[in-house]
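Propose amino acids for all 251 sites.
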């Protein structure tokens, strides 16, 4: 049986003092929750803080991006090996904000996915359609194209050591959550598509939903058969909300 996973994406929010209260609150709030896995993906400068405050507990930590290159003259970039130096477990790859605002193509996302895995990190590969794409009926085609970029480059086996997050762009930070049925339909599509390549990889794949998950809607989303947890933006910045979402993932 797949284990549920809840990951916070802090985006570009945080300050040392605020983070201290948030990390402490989350770490204490989920300490007794044994039936699921939890993580927070923090801005790069706070990885050391996350490491020192979370080590030894049951909340893992990670980054929100990385470079596709191992090292070199890439001013401003952060390599996968640097994340390993801070004991990161996860790296979010291909978040829609990176695709839209920083021009990350499917090919670049696939290269970043591989860089994360080669360093021993678990990539959280984000896929999802815009509102215009949903309204023109190409949701499945978009999600399939985004997944295929990784499968064609590195084989379906690469997804055995990864997490996929379905995040409809129209639901991210908008307060408009996909209904459990809408989310389930795309999750089922992703799993069925993977199963055509490898049934076992498909069955074991951890598939998160992301897009305005809140304390009040998490349980009904997580109850769907192909939703294995959530990638949480805004609500991961509020201790009580994030802990309540983590509690909803308990099995
Ligand atoms: C996200 O940033 O991945 C996200 C899902 O954000 P929010 O929960 O705020 O919609």
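Proposal:
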């Amino acid at each position: 049986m797949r284990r549920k996973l809840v990951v916070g994406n802090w985006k570009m929010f945080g300050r040392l003092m605020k983070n201290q209260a948030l990390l402490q609150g989350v770490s204490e709030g989920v300490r007794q929750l044994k039936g699921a896995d939890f993580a927070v993906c923090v801005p790069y400068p706070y990885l050391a803080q996350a490491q020192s405050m979370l080590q030894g507990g049951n909340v893992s930590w990670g980054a929100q991006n990385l470079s596709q290159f191992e090292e070199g003259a890439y001013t401003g970039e952060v390599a996968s090996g640097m994340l390993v130096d801070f004991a990161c477990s996860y790296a979010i790859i291909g978040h829609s904000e990176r695709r839209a605002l920083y021009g990350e193509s499917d090919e670049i996302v696939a290269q970043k996915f591989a860089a994360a895995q080669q360093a021993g990190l678990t990539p959280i590969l984000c896929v999802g359609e815009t509102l215009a794409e949903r309204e023109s009926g190409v949701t499945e085609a978009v999600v399939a194209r985004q997944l295929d970029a990784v499968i064609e480059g590195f084989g379906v086996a690469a997804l055995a050591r990864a997490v996929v997050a379905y995040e409809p762009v129209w639901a991210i930070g908008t307060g408009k959550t996909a209904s459990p049925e809408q989310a389930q339909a795309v999750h089922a599509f992703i799993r069925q598509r993977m199963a055509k390549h490898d049934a076992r990889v498909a069955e074991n794949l951890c598939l998160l939903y992301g897009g305005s998950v809140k304390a009040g809607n998490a349980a009904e989303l997580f109850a769907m058969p192909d939703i294995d947890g959530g990638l949480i933006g805004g609500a991961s910045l509020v201790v009580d909300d994030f802990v309540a979402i983590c509690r909803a993932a308990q099995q």
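The chain has a mean pLDDT of 97. Residues 9, 11, 167, 172-173, 210-213, 231-235 surround phosphoenolpyruvate (CB under 6 Å).
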